[in-house]
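REQUEST ID: PR-0412
SUBMITTED BY: lab tech R.K.
PRIORITY: routine
TASK: structure prediction, single protein chain
INPUT:
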Amino acid sequence: QVQLVESGGALVQPGGSLRLSCVGSGFSFSAYSFAWYRQFPGNGREFVARISPPYDTTEHADSVQGRFHISRDDVKSTVYLQMNSLKPSDTAVYYCTAPSLNAWGQGTPVTVSS
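STATUS: complete
OUTPUT:
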């Protein structure tokens, strides 16, 4: 059974940092691309970042470029999203996905507020 489980969301002050994690199971983790999306209240999901094998090619949305960084550890079957210089506008529920498997995690909430 394909499963993605996110963690790491929290309440953080503006300018702070968080690292989100997404653990995959039930499939050959290293063979797949992964992406992070976020959903603002009342809106659809917005692309944040993607990482693709075999060279760990990354892509980040303009809105997070230079502040967020996606990475992966295939030994741990985990994808990370390091978020720095957080802004209140980054407040959202963050989702991990394996697009080729049409698999999504349950989401982890991030709130940036003083």
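NOTES: The mean pLDDT is 96.
REVIEWED BY: pending
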